[in-house]
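Structure tokens
________________
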Amino acid sequence: MDKLSQRREIVKDLLCKYAQIKPAYGEIERQTIFDQERNHYQLINAGWENRRRVYGCLIHVDIQADGKVWIQYDGTEAGLANELVEAGIPKQEIVLAYQSDYMRKLTDFAVG
């Protein structure tokens, strides 16, 4: 399996794992969105809590042609980047895109 295919599987597996965790309150569904042609992956919440609509992105990851994994948004407590490292993706190939370039330089992860 090539690097790009391997990264796709790792990201999809992690998002599916998070999709199984049901929110404690409300009637909220977790939906995975996989665009494998363009390498965009999201996990969203959709539903209702009391009389309030709940909708939003929990995780958004893009995989670049060079295999770098760009975390656009991470709404998890554990930190998706750490889980990607545990799954075998080197820190130097994970970009914390939700942080500014300046802040990325201060981490062990890729700048861009």
